[in-house]
Design brief:
The chain folds into two domains: about 5-70, no CATH class; about 75-210, PH-domain like, CATH 2.30.29. Helix content is about 30%, strand content about 35%. It has four helices and ten strands, in the order αββααββββββββα. A hairpin with a 2-residue loop joins strand 4 (about 95-105) and strand 5.
């Protein structure tokens, strides 16, 4: 079981959803405050109140650290990259199924999504697009109401500054992934694409490297 991945995923979901105006990752602060008040009126012993407060603060700290990490952990591959000599090229406008992490946009608004179910495609102009339809929300599942709908990441080959191959840690298991270092308006914007199928990852990787003129990196043994 991937404990780190589970912590990152749980922190992401708690950070995105709310009870009224309060994000769920901050609920332990309310519990800590409530336990202090209950102790003052005699409902808890001092030791019990301290333990509850400490645990609540640890939970909040963990979610804040996960947010600072982007709710995802990427590990570069060890050794040589897998090769599929006979894999076909990704056709223009062909959609490849991925899970995507990065800063998505639509109608001038931006949202950061982690491991969103998405499609990757390259248009005739060679501009790359990642498109994700965020589902309607259920409790801790799907997207909050304001985030539901289609979201996009666009980037051109000349904006790719680096490509790394490895795996992302998020949830129960790690997934093979590509990390892209892209730039937009002078800012560095990493994009992570993870895959169910290593062959599909190779096709997307070849397509990305085709115009970017960048050799994918891994860590040598």
């Amino acid at each position: 079981m991937n404990i780190v991945g589970l912590i990152l995923k749980a922190s992401y979901q708690l950070n995105r959803h709310r009870i009224g105006p309060l994000r769920l990752n901050l609920v332990p602060l309310v519990l800590a405050l409530a336990s202090g008040l209950i102790w003052r009126v005699g409902g808890l012993t001092g030791e019990q109140a301290i333990w509850i407060i400490v645990l609540c603060l640890i939970l909040v700290l963990v979610t804040l650290l996960a947010k600072r990490q982007g709710f995802i952990l990427f590990r570069r591959s060890g050794g040589e990259l897998a090769s599929f000599p006979d894999c076909s090229e990704l056709a223009t406008d062909e959609k490849a199924a991925v899970r995507a992490t990065g800063l998505f946009e639509v109608r001038g608004e931006q949202r950061y999504f982690v491991e969103a179910i998405a499609d990757f495609a390259t248009m005739e102009t060679r501009e790359h697009i990642v498109m994700a339809k965020m589902p309607d929300s259920r409790f801790l599942v799907g997207a909050p109401k304001q985030d539901a709908g289609w979201w996009y990441i666009f980037f051109k080959p000349h904006t790719i500054r680096g490509i790394e191959v490895g795996e992302v840690c998020f949830g129960l298991r790690s997934r093979p992934a590509i990390k892209l270092i892209t730039t937009s308006e002078g800012k560095i914007k990493p994009v992570y694409l993870s895959f169910d199928d290593p062959l599909q990852m190779q096709r997307v990787l070849d397509d990305l490297c085709r115009d970017a003129k960048i050799k994918p990196q891994s860590v040598p043994r």
